[in-house]
Write a structure and sequence with these properties.
With about 475 residues, this protein is α+β, with helices and mostly antiparallel strands. The protein has helices spanning about 5-55, 165-215, 230-280, 285-310, 325-335, 355-375, 420-425, 430-440, and strands at about 75-80, 85, 90-95, 120, 125-135, 135-150, 155-160, 320, 340-345, 350-355, 380-385, 390-395, 445-450, 455-460. It has 8 helices and 14 strands. Strands 1, 2, 3, 4, 5, 6 and 7 form a 7-stranded antiparallel β-sheet that branches. Strands 9-11-12-14-13 form a 5-stranded mixed β-sheet. Strands 8-10 form a two-stranded antiparallel sheet. α4 (about 285-310) packs parallel to α8. The longest helix has about 55 residues, at about 165-215. The chain is elongated, with a radius of gyration of 51 Å.
């Protein structure tokens, strides 16, 4: 069954059927028990009535047994197991311990000489058996009560009450339940089908709209959101949020491809021009310029590949390393920088971080490249430890970053000074890569103002050392 409605209706019907079957069985058991107890109570009343006569000294042959033998058959048995009294027209009796229907004459009277009254036991023993009266056999509930005559002779009175009414009532209720069960299950199935169809109608609307979005590739469309506050409404809202995120991601990807193509076009065109000129006029070939364009093209390609890996969710390594040592090593290797870089790592000597040492070094290199481009006279790098974080800052004494632009500079291909040359300003990917790497390592990168008035970039990474 592929339909959710059909499976739901079938499941609900089966559950209700099982519940009704269990409830019906319990109800019938309780009903039968009550009816049997009621018959037993009637038999007990009859048995005690006869037992009271024996306790009062009435001879066995003169006991006043119920006239309606079919309704209240009675059998009296003495202590030796002999039948001393039995109801009229009783042809056969089972369930009393003695199947005899003939009274023994010698035991037809209690022993003489008794004075006062005898005793009727408070205990009662119930049993079930069959009695044949005038050729018709029926089931009965028997109550056995012991009685003692004034002379001390003991006897047990077995009195029965018919179970025919119990059987008829039980059968009637059972048949009524069995007759009503299919109709009730049909109602449950139909109601469940209708309710499920109504409940799933918004889901079908969502499915149709998603199919239309897939066919049209128009990610600006949204699925309908029902006015309810249930799971389906939350599903629709989540679907729309996913579509919005997907639309933004696709738009960002398209913009990234367009910007990358634009950035790659310039060095490729310049390199091609220089090679074509050199091919026609070797003496005019600008080898340093061609090498510079090739290096810039190589760096741009490396940046684009790194961003692609970061966008794909590449996980950083789990190696632990000292951040201060990394800073000293990287700064020592930058011998061609325009300005000297001052390093202060005394407060962060114990700071260790986990992740990719190469990627963190790339973040530092990008921040230093940015500072070297904008600093007037100096660049300062500090490392310190704050509770469970290692903090690295790169500061310069340049013009700084306007407060309103401190988030935009982390966007890809963004350069605040559009008038400066591309060679000087770069492609605008360094800070974007730095922030992405920081995020992949569970840290943050933000821009601010340095004490000297220039830009300050603060990298904060989790530290467990």
């Amino acid at each position: 069954m592929r339909s959710v409605r059909a499976r739901t209706a079938l499941g609900a019907t089966l559950v209700v059927a099982l519940a009704l079957a269990a409830a019906g069985a319990a109800l019938l058991a309780v009903l039968r028990g009550n009816l049997v107890d009621q018959a037993g109570l009637q038999a007990n009343v009859t048995a005690r009535s006869v037992a009271a006569q024996i306790a009062n000294g009435t001879p066995f042959a003169e006991l006043d047994l119920p006239d309606d033998t079919e309704e209240h058959p009675v059998q009296v048995v003495d202590s030796d197991g002999r039948v001393v009294a039995v109801g009229e027209n009783v042809d056969a009796i089972e369930g009393t311990g003695s199947r005899s229907t003939k009274a023994v004459p010698t035991a037809s009277r209690p022993e003489d000489g008794g004075e006062g009254t005898g005793e009727v036991s408070e205990d009662v023993v119930y049993s079930t058996g069959d009695v044949t009266v005038e050729g018709e056999t029926s089931a009965y509930r028997f109550a056995a009560v012991e009685a003692a005559a004034p002379g001390g002779q003991e006897a047990t009175v077995h009195a029965g009450a018919p179970l025919a009414a119990e059987a008829a009532t039980f059968s009637g209720v059972r048949d009524a339940m069995l007759a009503a069960l299919p109709a009730l299950l049909l109602v449950v199935a139909v109601v469940t089908w209708l309710v499920t169809r109504r409940a799933l109608k918004p889901v079908e609307g969502i499915r149709q709209e998603m199919a239309a979005i897939t066919a049209s590739e128009d990610l600006s469309r949204r699925v309908p959101e029902p006015g309810t506050h249930d799971e389906i409404a939350r599903l629709a809202r989540t679907t729309n949020e996913t579509l919005a995120a997907l639309e933004a991601s696709v738009a960002r990807q398209r913009r990234f491809v367009a910007d990358a193509s634009h950035e790659l076009r310039s060095p490729i065109a310049s390199l091609r021009t220089q090679l074509e000129v050199g091919s026609a006029h070797p003496e005019l070939l600008d080898v340093p310029g061609a090498v510079a364009d090739t290096v810039r093209l190589q760096q741009l390609a490396a940046d684009l590949l790194l961003l692609a890996r970061l966008d794909a969710g590449e996980k950083p390594g789990r190696a632990r390393f000292a951040l201060a040592a990394l800073v000293r090593e990287e700064v020592a290797q930058r011998t061609a920088d325009r300005l000297p870089t001052r390093v202060d790592t005394e407060d962060g000597e114990e700071a260790e971080v986990s992740g990719s040492r190469g990627q963190v070094a790339r973040v530092l290199a990008n921040l230093l490249d940015n500072a070297q481009r904008h600093a007037e006279s100096r660049v300062t790098v500090t490392v310190r430890r704050e509770r469970d974080h290692a903090v690295l800052t790169v500061a310069d004494d340049g013009a700084g970053v306007p407060e309103g632009e401190r988030e935009r500079i982390f966007e890809r291909f963004v350069r605040l000074d559009d008038a400066r040359s591309r060679d000087e300003g770069g492609a605008g990917l360094g800070l974007a890569i730095a922030r992405d790497v920081a995020a992949r390592h569970g840290g943050t990168l933000r821009a601010g103002r340095s004490p000297s008035g220039g830009a300050l970039f603060e990298l904060r990474l989790p530290s467990g050392g």
